[in-house]
Specification:
single chain, alpha/beta, Rossmann fold, eight-stranded mixed beta sheet, 16 helices, 16 strands, 18% strand, Glyco_trans_1, Glycosyltransferase family 4 protein, Glyco_trans_4-like_N
Length: 402
């Protein structure tokens, strides 16, 4: 088979100014780069005068260079017009206009077989518009934002329009496929390919040593959550359980790993909640850490807790398991597809304080088979997904040739 030329279109992608943004997209697509030639186009929202906002919010919309080279792969960051809070239904059209110039140039220089987009809106809609005008194959990966967008009367028709024009859709979980079909997408246009984990990057460290690195007593009980500091991730729900948990586990430590994201930053709200509940001495904010440093806090923990309101496929669940740490997660999105056995964790109803408290209590006291948890993660390595993706991309191009 000849090597394909794939253009990846995703507004969420790591850059020199947002190093943690969209790592899961890069993890998958840079591995696709082993069997295809890829180039990334990651449109960045911009509007005249946004520098004024940075006087009040210094980290507002940081602007990367127009082009970066990451691990030998070129990543473009064209700007598209996006006015905060206004006309967001035009984001797809604006993104298409900005990205098309770059993709046309790539096509002229090297040829393009497939435009592979991530998130249906606005990225997927932009990709289908570009692909239609250039007569290219186009795929969309559904990653979780589709749930909230499907409830928006302005955005739902845009989702359906993108799915109608796409040649194929990839869902990171069965739940996302079911959602899309339930609101009108064609059933035969989907393939489910879950995210994976890099078990070379996320690896178990002896718990005693990991705790020493973090200055945590070896006889403490430790739980951890990793994610952007936004309300959706549910840190506040875990903190709300702590006064009761401390009655049983007086040396309990809760590690919060994460920082500001495109969705916002509620760190001060969380710290205020800790103060009001009198648990601030038991909660540690470690800030945002690069992936290569996460094995230490993940290995130090007894359990990982994700009380999230919405997920497509949370990579951090498998990353935790690769470090031998079981996971307690809410029954949203694809969480129960990852935590699919009580040997690796527990799924609880969303926003059920009693259920979450009970599960954490049980998880902290349970004698987990951590070797089995690590083996489960190893069986979900990123490389196990590549054959399926390669076959899909090759079949799309073969259809075109025929």
């Amino acid at each position: 088979m000849s090597r394909l030329k794939i253009v990846v279109l995703s507004s969420l992608f790591p850059s020199s100014v947002r190093k943690q943004s969209g790592l899961f997209v890069r993890e998958r697509m840079f591995r696709v780069g082993r069997f295809a030639d890829i180039e990334v186009v990651s449109p960045v929202p911009w509007f005249p005068g946004q520098s004024i906002i940075r006087w009040f919010k210094p980290n507002y919309r940081p602007m990367p260079a127009l082009k970066e080279v990451q691990h030998g792969i070129t990543v473009h960051f064209p700007r598209f017009l996006a006015i905060p809070g206004l006309f967001r239904q035009w984001d797809g059209a604006m993104m298409a206009r900005a990205a098309k110039r770059t993709i046309v140039q790539i096509d002229k220089e090297q040829g393009v077989d497939i435009i592979d987009s991530h998130f249906t809106y606005p990225d997927g809609l932009a990709a289908t518009e570009i692909a239609k005008s250039l007569a290219k194959k186009v795929t969309i990966t559904l990653r979780g934002t589709e749930l909230s967008h499907s409830l928006d009367p302005l955005k739902k028709p845009l989702l359906l329009a993108a799915w109608e024009q796409a040649d194929h859709m990839i869902c990171v979980s069965q739940s996302l496929k079911d959602l899309a079909i339930s609101i009108g997408a064609q059933q035969d246009k989907f393939t489910v390919v879950g995210n994976g984990v890099d078990t070379d990057k996320f690896t178990v460290i002896e718990q005693k040593l990991a705790r020493q690195k973090l200055a945590i007593d070896t006889d403490s009980n430790v739980m951890i959550t990793v994610g952007g500091l936004v309300k959706r991730k549910g840190f506040h729900r875990v903190i709300a359980c702590m006064p009761e948990l401390l009655k049983t586990y007086p040396k309990l430590v809760y590690l919060i790993v994460g920082g500001a994201s495109a969705e916002g930053n509620i760190e001060q709200e969380l710290k205020q909640q800790c103060k009001e509940l009198g648990v601030e001495k038991h909660v540690r904010f470690l800030g945002s850490l690069p992936p290569e440093q996460l094995s230490v806090p993940l290995s130090a923990a007894d359990i990982f807790v994700l009380a999230t309101a919405n997920e497509g496929w949370a990579n951090v669940i498998l990353e935790s398991m690769a470090c031998g740490t079981p996971v307690i997660a809410t029954d949203v999105g694809g969480n129960k597809e990852v935590v699919n056995s009580d040997s690796v964790g527990e799924i609880v109803p969303f926003d059920d304080h009693h259920a979450l408290l009970t599960a954490i209590n049980s998880g902290l006291s349970k004698n987990w088979d951590r070797t089995a948890i690590i083996e489960y993660a190893n069986n979900n390595h990123w490389d196990t997904r590549m054959t399926k993706l390669n076959t899909l991309f090759q079949s799309l191009v073969k259809d075109t040739e025929q």
